[in-house]
Amino acid sequence: xxxxxxxxxxxxxxxxxxxxxxxxxxxxxxxxxxxxxxxxxxxxxxxxxxxxxxxxxxxxxxxxxxxxxxxxxxxxxxxxxxxxxxxxxxxxxxxxxxxxxxxxxxxxxxxxxxxxxxxxxxxxxxxxxxxxxxxxxxxxxxxxxxxxxxxxxxxxxxxxxxxxxxxxxxxxxxxx
Length: 176
Description:
By secondary structure, the chain is mainly alpha-helical. Helix content is 66%, strand content 0%.
């Protein structure tokens, strides 16, 4: 393994190193935390903790790629924090935001999904409703293998997501 040891002789050198890491890595960490539903302040906290862990390993000479290592630590810390937060969510009033009368309209949802095309509808129905294995789906739809069926299923789901984004649809658009 080609390990490099980070040598920081002065406080100014360490400060320059941290500033460089903030400029190069923090935007990616902040983007990840934001995408996962976190705030900018949470991203800063996660990055600080990741930076401390990274620095300890870097000084010991155990790290090759600081960006990859920092991102990995940040993702791990975020997931751990999120899991811990979810574990202690109180259930008092949990159902207060739900409307018992609201029922998802199968007709509205079906009409919306049909915009993806017949082939996508058939593929998604085979996977989600009929619960066919991907090998059977690949054979039925004439794909070269399971991987191709997986990719096509993903593309169909992306069509649905794109339509939702284009039309700025919300949950309320599918309930009666």
